[in-house]
C-alpha cells in the first residue's frame, strides 16, 4: 500500500479523475463512489437534449421520478457519467460550464489512452 493515496489528476464539483482511469463521485456511498471509465460514457448535455430522451441510465441515476419531474425551461447543462453498473447525473451551473467541459475532455482523453494501452 502506498504511503499516500492516489491523487486525482482532474476535479469538477464532487467528481475526480484518477490516472488509472477511475472516476469518483463523492456524493455516492463509499462502496460505489469510484468506478472505471472503461466502457463508460461521459457527456456534457444540454438540458433540452436531455429532456428529449430519457435513457435508462438517467432513470437509474434519478430514480423513477425522472419521468415525472418538472422539466426546466432549458439552458442548463448536465454532466452525465454512466457505465455498465452505474449512472451519475450532475447539474452544471452556467458559471462552471468551462470547468465541466475540461473535465469531460480529460476523461475522454484518459479513455483513449487506456484503450491504446490495451
Strand order of the largest sheet: 1-2-3-4
Beta strands, count: 7
Query: What are the segments in which pLDDT stays under 50 over at least 5 consecutive residues?
Result: none
Q: What integer value in Å does the Rg equal? A: 15 Å
Number of helices: 3
H/E series? EEEEEHHEEH
Share of helix among residues? 25-40%
Structural class: alpha+beta
Main sheet, how many strands, which sense, barrel? 4 strands, antiparallel
**How big a fraction of the residues is strand?**
25-35%
Write the layout of secondary structure elements.
Elements (H helix, E strand, L loop, with lengths): L9 E3 L2 E3 L4 E4 L8 E3 L4 E6 H6 L3 H7 L14 E7 L2 E7 L4 H21 L1
Antiparallel strand pairs: 1-2, 2-3, 3-4, 5-6, 6-7
